[in-house]
Amino acid sequence: MLKVLTILVALIAIATYGFISYLQRSPELPKIDYERWWGKGQKVDEDESVRPFKIEFNDTMIADLKSRLKNRRPLTKPLEGIKSEYGMNTIYLEKVLNNWVEKYDFKERANRLNQLPRYKTRVQGLDIHFIRVKPKVQGVKTLPLLMLHGWPSSSKEFQKVIPLLTTQRTGYDFVFEVIAADLPGFGFSEGTNKPGLSGLHIGVIMRNLMRRLGFNQFYIHAGDWGSNVATHMTTVFPDEILGYHSTMAVTSRPYSYLKLFLGSLVPNFVMDPKYVNRVYPLSDLFSYLLRESGYMHIQSTKPDTIGVGLTDSPAGLAAYVMEKIGVCTNRDQTNTEHSGLAALEQEDVLDTLTILWNTNCIVTSTRLYAEGSNKEAKIVDNIPTKVPTAVVNFRYEVVHMPVWMLRDKFQNIVHCSFYDYGGHFAGLEVPKELADDIFKGMAAILEYRKRNSLNL
């Protein structure tokens, strides 16, 4: 009997080892077309010039928007005792919509947005919009930094951060030249009419954009979908991406999810006990994800359907987008009318809504959820990268992954910081803290590269 048990235990151990080894395997990089055409029709020779661009909220758009808002149907009041537990509180929404009509200064806000120099250029058939700010400094290194946003955002998200990054500061021998791009189909960047534009292929577009601007090597900061794009870039172009800083670093390797479950058995061992509640118990995590991920399922399956209502009704667009912004800013405040929005300046939120409405990009942006992960992207997800990586964890970021998981994907994490406040849209809510951490993270990346005799 003992012999049988010994053999059984040995077989289980061998099978477990084989299963874990299978999950840890790293596939070969798939063949990727770096010049794939995403423009309308067949590929043609395109104008590669970089053109100045200014945002304009014209009178026709403003008048139509205000008319639709003024003539909206009466909104259904929340149930008694309910704040934002069922979604957007319509009493609070009414106040915001009225402010959008009566107090929001469209022309002044456009002028404010245009204070940062903006450009467009065609890349792989699409007009890509970006902000580019060069620092006016001498005697310090200038690091080219590509900044990438997520949904439902745009480069507007970095409006407050960019001046902080392009200004020299004491204690650092470098400053940043910032290129903050709108992802294709977001903000003022053109969307594609062809299926298959995943985060992986957007990463190729962003890399080609940087080459167009003269940068064969550069650094990246990204969050949300921008993090998905940037992660692919660090994997496919490890010799071109010199360092990566993220507010939402994520590993999608199968082995990492096994570790997530195993970690639930000894959470205080695999994580700093002060931050365990950001991940464990898993029942709380899954309950939160189940409660808040309905929009993700809709956008991953039927983005065009939900897009009809959001395209036609600015009130509907505001309710849908603001509810997600609020929850992602502070998910513990669904018991308030504002659902977390109080942490953001209302004009910043209205800027985001106005850009979405003005460019009519709500459908092209939500389609990324359906297109975001194809066969090629899933393969690249499972390939680790050696690009030095810095991670900042704000309290209410949508997803928090422990470092022991992240190292499965990002093998060289050189900086990791935690904040007891702040949420998903850190660039709007806590721009100083975000800028501070980008400097700290990049300093650690530069030190790593110097220590390992890598080019700077």
Automatic annotation (TrEMBL):
<feature type="active site" description="Proton acceptor">
    <location>
        <position position="424"/>
    </location>
</feature>
<dbReference type="InterPro" id="IPR016292">
    <property type="entry name" value="Epoxide_hydrolase"/>
</dbReference>
<dbReference type="GO" id="GO:0033961">
    <property type="term" value="F:cis-stilbene-oxide hydrolase activity"/>
</dbReference>
<keyword id="KW-0058">Aromatic hydrocarbons catabolism</keyword>
<feature type="active site" description="Nucleophile">
    <location>
        <position position="224"/>
    </location>
</feature>
<feature type="domain" description="Epoxide hydrolase N-terminal">
    <location>
        <begin position="50"/>
        <end position="158"/>
    </location>
</feature>
<comment type="similarity">
    <text>Belongs to the peptidase S33 family.</text>
</comment>
<protein>
    <recommendedName>
        <fullName>Epoxide hydrolase</fullName>
        <ecNumber>3.3.2.9</ecNumber>
    </recommendedName>
</protein>
<dbReference type="InterPro" id="IPR010497">
    <property type="entry name" value="Epoxide_hydro_N"/>
</dbReference>
<dbReference type="InterPro" id="IPR000639">
    <property type="entry name" value="Epox_hydrolase-like"/>
</dbReference>
<dbReference type="GO" id="GO:0005789">
    <property type="term" value="C:endoplasmic reticulum membrane"/>
</dbReference>
<dbReference type="Pfam" id="PF06441">
    <property type="entry name" value="EHN"/>
</dbReference>
<keyword id="KW-0472">Membrane</keyword>
<keyword id="KW-0256">Endoplasmic reticulum</keyword>
<feature type="active site" description="Proton donor">
    <location>
        <position position="369"/>
    </location>
</feature>
<dbReference type="InterPro" id="IPR029058">
    <property type="entry name" value="AB_hydrolase_fold"/>
</dbReference>
<comment type="function">
    <text>Catalyzes juvenile hormone hydrolysis.</text>
</comment>
<keyword id="KW-0378">Hydrolase</keyword>
<dbReference type="GO" id="GO:0097176">
    <property type="term" value="P:epoxide metabolic process"/>
</dbReference>
